[in-house]
Amino acid sequence: MSDVFCSDCKRHTEVVFDHSAGDTVCSECGLVLESHSIDETSEWRTFANESGDNDPVRVGGPTNPLLADGGLTTVIAKPNGSSGDFLSSSLGRWQNRGSNPDRGLIVAFKTIATMADRLGLVATIKDRANEIFKRVEDQKSSRGRNQDALLAACLYIACRQEDKPRTVKEICSVANGATKKEIGRAKEYIVKQLGLETGQSVEMGTIHAGDFMRRFCSNLGMTNQTVKAAQESVKKSEEFDIRRSPISIAAAVIYIITQLSDDKKPLRDVSVATGVAEGTIRNSYKDLYPHLPKIIPTWYAKEEDLKNLQSP
Amino acid sequence: MADQELEGSEPVDLTKHASGIVPTLQNIVSTVNLDCKLDLKAIALQARNAEYNPKRFAAVIMRIREPKTTTLIFASGKMVCTGAKTEYSSKMAARKYARIIQKLGFPAKFKDFKIQNIVGSCDVKFPIRLEGLAYHHSAFSSYEPEIFPGLIYRMKVPKIVLLIFVSGKIVITGAKGHGFDPCETSSLVFYPLGVAKLAENFVLEQRLSQ
């Protein structure tokens, strides 16, 4: 139901859109104003079982504005009944060998999608990472750089920008072959490139221990109450002058909280879940120990329980 | 606090160092052109304290004891001198190296002596909240605790990079000209910018320790 100018009635009239025939019909005089409108929604039939040559799906994937022509292509198909004459079967091969301006981009997007999948990231982060990569690629100066590290850094920055930061170690675990150092360098490079391009430096806040608490706790399978206590503790610990990386502080706080609960997690489990080395957690524990009474919430553990905690 | 004695036996001259902090110079890198082609093999064979490994690096590495410096001497006649603690001693060391080359028989001159980099360090003596600094000066700061524990502050005027650590220690690098001692100027610029934000932390620290 919308208001469109009808040429017969010579005025704006109510118009009905008929989905079955794809017609736009004037409700006053019945004139068909537009026919055969193209439906831009996704394919509603699914073909899980059908395989082989006659794939009845009528549409391709969603248009990708980052690719050069929206990802539209025309492909010469292989003829049925395996190669009739030489020409028709080789045509398909020759067409594919022709230069595709987006090939690098498509491969890169695919890699980012794989990495995002492994980490369980939502589509918004994946799309943002794709966008960042395209913006960096547009400035041709990124040739000869370790592509894996660059893609991993795009993903890292995308996570940060969406306020769902992932530690570099986590990104490392899904990026094939990129080391922490390389990802760090690539990240600096990307930030600089984006800053040059837009003229305004990229918005990226510092990481806090609290951002990672939820994820680390659920990796360890902690109960809701312990998770809540851990989050509160981490918030309070920010006021104190503890000179450690936020991830190490998070890991140490989780260790302390689990030691205070009934379900004590060994140091090794906490180390594996957070990616922090055991020695680092021990040292962070030493740094936190003097401030524990102020950090741990009183509803969770009393003073005596804190005294029972082993002294570092 | 402004006129405390911080370095050495003399009180700090506040007309020169208004923040009361004197950065100590740690390293000076300079280059000079000897203006003649050199035979590196001959130099390596004849000179003392010279090493030359053409497969690894295409320059002679020479060291002298006084002032304690190292230099890279290239076949084109250009030379890089590192390790000096003051600008004057860097120049003196470069002259000594040029003299050594002259004594070996090459017509070495002393053209275009230029200081390329000055590295200094200083201590503000109070802990610094790097996150607060990164938030307020986000255009210049880069703070990634996962990657490097210090905050990298790229100052525009003078064009200098400072590595700022939580302990209050600061490393200043990238200073080139020595007309107005950018090392000291940068700490001067930085100190008033930072001190309001950061001094709160120091006061907090004092109250906690009481």
From TrEMBL, chain A:
Q: Which domain of life is it from?
A: Eukaryota
Q: Which PROSITE patterns match?
A: TFIIB, ZF_TFIIB
What is the native source organism of this protein?
Arabis nemorensis
State what protein this is by name: TFIIB-type domain-containing protein
Where is this protein found?
Answer: Nucleus
MF terms in GO: TBP-class protein binding; zinc ion binding
Q: Name one GO biological process term.
A: transcription preinitiation complex assembly
Question: Keywords on this record?
Answer: Metal-binding, Nucleus, Repeat, Transcription, Transcription regulation, Zinc, Zinc-finger
Q: Which residues form the TFIIB-type domain?
A: 2-34
Q: Which family does it belong to?
A: Belongs to the TFIIB family.
Per the record, its GO cellular-component terms are: nucleus; transcription preinitiation complex
Which Gene3D superfamilies does this one have? Answer: 1.10.472.170, Cyclin-like
Q: Which Pfam families match?
A: TFIIB (PF00382), Zn_Ribbon_TF (PF08271)
TrEMBL record, chain B:
Q: Which Pfam families match?
A: TBP
The organism's superkingdom is given as: Eukaryota
| Biological process, per Gene Ontology | DNA-templated transcription initiation
Q: Which GO terms describe its molecular function?
A: DNA binding
The answer to keyword Cell inner membrane applying to this record is no
Keyword DNA-binding recorded? yes
**Keywords carried by this UniProt record:** DNA-binding, Nucleus, Transcription
Q: Where in the cell is it found?
A: Nucleus
**Which InterPro entries would you find in this protein's record?**
TBP (IPR000814), TBP_CS (IPR030491), TBP_dom_sf (IPR012295), TBP_eukaryotic (IPR033710)
User: What's an example GO cellular component term for this entry?
Assistant: nucleus
What is the similarity comment for this entry? Belongs to the TBP family.
Which HAMAP family does the entry link to?
TATA_bind_prot_arch
The entry's protein name is TATA-box-binding protein
The organism of origin for this protein: Arabis nemorensis
